[in-house]
Structures are given as structure tokens and as C-alpha cells.
Amino acid sequence: MGFGVVGVILSLLLVLQASGFVSVQQANASGFNTLKGRKQASGCNLFQGRWVVDPSFPLYNSSTCPFIDAEFNCQKYGRPDTLYLKYSWRPDSCTLPRFDGVDVLKRWSGKKIMFVGDSLSLNMWESLSCMLQAAAPNAKTAFFRRDSISSVFFQDYGVTLLLYRTPYLVDIVKEDVGRVLKLDSIEAGKAWLGMDVLVFNSWHWWTHTGNSQAWDLIQDGTTLSQDMDRLVAFYKGLTTWARWVDLNVDPTKTKVFFQGISPTHYLGKEWNEPKKNCNGESEPLTGSMYPGGAPPAVDVVNRVLSRIKVPVYLLDITTLSQLRKDAHPAGYSGEISGTDCSHWCLPGLPDTWNQLMYAALLTM
Ligand SMILES: *[C@@H]1O[C@H](CO)[C@@H](O)[C@H](O)[C@H]1NC(C)=O
Ligand SMILES: *[C@@H]1O[C@H](CO)[C@@H](O)[C@H](O)[C@H]1NC(C)=O
User: Fold this and answer.
1) Is ligand 2 within 6 A of the CB of residue 19?
2) Residues 6+ positions from 250 with CB-CB distance below 8 Å
3) Ligand 2 centroid distance, CA of 19 (Å)
4) Are strands 112-117 and 159-165 parallel, antiparallel or unpaired?
5) Closest CA to 98 of 126, 130, 65, 135
6) Residue 307: what are its φ and ψ, rounded to 5°?
7) What pLDDT, on a 0 to 100 scale, did the predictor assign at position 336?
8) Phi and psi of 161, rounded to 5°?
9) Are 230 and 173 in contact (CB under 8 A)?
10) Where in this chain does the record put each Trichome birefringence-like N-terminal domain (predicted)?
């Protein structure tokens, strides 16, 4: 079957879904694959709510966290405003438990938590490392960074936070013809086995073209092509990932999260300020709705998660992050030139993603 056909099927599904004919998996607080009728508890949607100023935020100070990369270290690189550090997420129908880092360290004693994906995984991994380090400032840590794998080990508690960098989740293999993006292969997955928690994410790199595209050819089954529709490619790659999870994850041993699509703020027209991007933004949007709507990749994630057999908890962070046009590094991203409206300052928004993951884990 050519990707044209799959494209048509996928578009059809997306249209049906948009028109309400196909129900999308809801990320309820208890919401493990609720489409499949798995257990529901409180019924609170943690991801529906608004941002409020909370004087007890941020959860840590960047100057005392040794794990923050320059590109996320906005205060160190001169960001003048601080209000963006003070926002806390308020779900409409329940209270988000306050993050208790010592509780996490004790609960996770002897456990391994791995983030798998692109630099948004890096962003969330560094955030969690800082949140735990702030809770136990005198705890001994061992830290290492490599190309594909990095880790922070909290020695006194035996907790390991790992990061596996693989922006597409599926493999890129160097062959005679060039770098081949293999839509149906995840050899790298061997390194993800034996974890207690796995947190996956992918999307941004699927959109890259030109010099920032990490592959030369794309392989779908036995067909090699120069390019294809990027949403269809993402759908196929993510479907391979779902198959990997179903074949390799024992849900009694490993909890699986999908870190939902992280939005960018390059196009002010999405929030009705067409001349702007994230640069100079110092406050979130008010309310619970993002005028620009959801990015199309969200539908792909929902489709794939609705069919996976192993329970995967969707951290449905897209909308709440879309409201945070103020939370990007913009020009305060270390030595990197240009305006970064894609990653997030630390402390900052990814701390809330981790707080939500903590809340979800408490209900499991
Ligand atoms: C999510 O929770 C609400 C409130 O309990 C419930 O009405 C809804 O059916 C749940 N969603 C799904 C997909 O189960
Ligand atoms: C972080 O700590 C430094 C050093 O104590 C202090 O000068 C700075 O104001 C703090 N930053 C924030 C945002 O509270």
C-alpha cells in the first residue's frame, strides 16, 4: 500500500475525528486508555484549567541547579522579567497536588525513569532533575552526558533519571545511499528496556527540512523515497513505536507516558497578534482556549494512542503549553543565536509537565 492511500485514510480519520464521529482518547486523571474501558477514578481532567500567579513558584532557582543547559537557562543569560516564573497550573475540577520531591525520591527508590525523544525530552529531564535536586539539595548526585544517553543518579535514594536522545523514535541508519529514516524499525529500543517509567516524545524533527533534516531518504517497508507527507510519516513512525511498546513493555513492571505535542510560538497570528512571536512576551494568555487551535500532530498522537494495547498515559500538555507564549527562552538561550520559541526556560513550564506526571503517577 502506497503512502498516498494511507494519507487518504489518515485524512479521512482526521476529518471524522474533527467532526466528532470518532471519539478521541481523553486524558482523564485516571485516564489510562479510557477508550478501552480501563479503570477510571476521579474523572478529573488535569489538563483542562488555567494559569494563576502563585507566590510559592518557581520550584527551584536556576543558580542552584547544576543540570540546566545554557539554552534553557534564561535567568543566567539575562532575561529581565520574572513574572513568568510565578505561574502555576490550576485544573478546573480538582487540585493539582504540590510536587513533593522527597516523596518522589523515596517512592522511586531503586527505580529508573527514562525520557526518550528529542530536545523537549531534554527540557523535561533537566526540569525533573532540578526539581528533585531542590528537594534534596545535599543529596549526592552523579551526572553524565553522552550523545545518545545521559543520566543523573541520586545516590542516597538510588533513583536514576535517564535521557535517551532519538528525535524520531524510529531509527536512522547510515547506508551507501545516505542516512535512511526507517519508518518501521526501532533497533535503538534495546536501550529502553528494564525501566520503571518511560516517557516518550517526538514530533518537531519530523517537520525539519533542508540542513536541519537529519536524514537523506525515507524508507517505508521496501520503498525508499526522497520525501513524503510529514504527518503521514509521523503517523507511520509512531505506529511502529506503538507496536514496539506492545511487544516489549510489561505494563506490570513499566509505566509508560507520552509527552504530548509541545507547541511553538513563532506565529503571533495564532493568538491574534500577527506581528509578534514569543519575543518580549511576559504573560500567558488568559482563559483555557488557544485561539489558534491544536496543531495537526495532536490528532496523529491521539489516533495512535487510541489503538495501542499497553496502557499509555497521555500527558496532554499541548493546550496548557500553548497558553504560555511567555515561557520560551526567545533571545536568552545562552550562546545560541536567534529567537527560540520552541524550547522552554528552566525553571518554567516543563516543571508543570513534571508536576502533572507526578499527579498522574499518584493515581496509578
Ligand atoms: C473522562 O471523565 C469524564 C468525567 O468523569 C467522563 O464523563 C468521560 O467519559 C471520561 N472520558 C473518557 C474518554 O472516558
Ligand atoms: C536566585 O538566587 C540568586 C542568588 O541567591 C538570587 O540573586 C536571585 O534573585 C534568585 N532568582 C530568583 C528568580 O529568585
Assistant:
1) no
2) none
3) 49
4) parallel
5) 135
6) -110, -10
7) 81
8) -105, 115
9) no
10) 43-94
Q: Are 26 and 38 in contact (CB under 8 A)?
A: no
Which residues are CB-neighbours of 95 under 8 A, at least 6 positions away? none
342 and 336 Cβ atoms separated by less than 8 Å: no
Nearest ligand (C-alpha, residue 35): 1
Give which of 13, 41, 38 is closest to 29, Cα–Cα: 41
The letter for the amino acid at 364 is M
49 vs 5, higher pLDDT: 49
- CA 73 to ligand 1 centroid distance, Å: 38
End-to-end CA distance of the chain: 40
Task: For residues 307 and 240, give the distance between their C-alpha atoms in angstroms, rounded to a whole number.
Answer: 12
Element (H, E) at 163: strand 159-165
pLDDT, greater one: 27 or 311: 311
Q: Enter the pTM of the model.
A: 0.86
How many C-alpha atoms does 91 have within 13 Å on its Cβ side? 22
What is the average pLDDT value for the chain, to the nearest integer?
Answer: 90
Ligand 2 site-directed mutation target among 56, 57, 61, 81, most atoms within 8 Å of CB: 61
Q: How confident is the model at residue 42 (pLDDT cuts 50, 70, 90)?
A: low
* Alpha-carbon gap, residue 58 to 85, rounded angstroms: 5
- Asked whether residue 101 carries a pLDDT value surpassing 70, the answer given is yes
Over 90: is that where the pLDDT of 256 sits?
Answer: yes
